[in-house]
Structures
1.
Amino acid sequence: MDPSATGIQEPFDLIRLSLSERVFVKLRGDRQLTGILHAYDGHMNLIMSDVEETIMIVDPESAANGHGVVNIAKRKMEMLFVRGDGVILVSPPART
Amino acid sequence: MDDSPRPPSDQSPPPPPPPAQFLKGIVGKRVIVRLTSGVDYRGSACVLGVFWMMLIDAWYRSTIEHVNGIVTNRYGDAFIRGNNVLYISAAEPM
């Protein structure tokens, strides 16, 4: 995608183009979300629906041994408000 | 570019200070972005949001995520919230 061709002037415009689409969101605390983006604001507060959350949990015992086994927990939520300060990265679906 | 101080002029606005100049200069260039968490992102800086000379957020393209030097993810487009950024390093000549 070419920024000049799509009228993108600021980074938020990328998020605007992803409204109503399935996006990937990386959050603090080793969490990530995929869901349909409905709304956002300047803080990157997000409203998402049909969300699947993936939580990476490093097992403390194996971490002490130096193995670092990572357990993955998943859960689904129908509708979600994400507070903006937890957001690290937002990636829209690949476009052709 | 001429780095010597220029006499004040009423016509042209003062040049941006070096950090803001850097942020302007990396647009379209390949960069390495390190987050405070230690994760690295390599990609092309596409659009940067700068407010009061602070990087607020930025959009990178063809981004590869590295943790401890190992590739962990790839994103066609990635929007990174600026508060997570530790530094941005230019990966090609400016």
2.
Amino acid sequence: MDPFSSPPPSGSGEGPSNEVVMDQVKQQLAQAYAEEFFGTVRDKCFTKCVTRPSTSLSGGESSCISRCVERYIEATGIISRAVVTSLPR
Amino acid sequence: MDASHASELQYFLEQEKQKAVLNELVGKLTDVCWDKCITGTPGSKFSSGESSCLTNCAQRFLETSSLILRRFQSLQQ
């Protein structure tokens, strides 16, 4: 059930528990984040690895894409650490 | 919904919002710094030059951001 669209039933208790709502929020945020990340990585790696699109992806292009995805994830980790260390405390 | 029930939720949402802002910042910086630092075809490992470029890029971007912010603030006075 969806706690955002269904109002809590009156009388019979308190509606969805906080735990249920929090889980749903977290799940939806994770989903949205994953979709956005997928789109970004696809765009970056397509630009980098498929410079002259032909009738199919070559072996070289496919392995470039795999490496590109791994490096992009690694780059995200590096940036994340750099940001955390330079946050004002 | 009682008060403690509601404030627990409010606290949770505040936390999630902060995480989302941070995530978005990291995403933006990775986007910008990837283009700046990773100029060749991605290898099976970052060179040390590439990884330090990424770290420097992120930190200088934040520094640039606060520099410009301060400049704007001084213009308003």
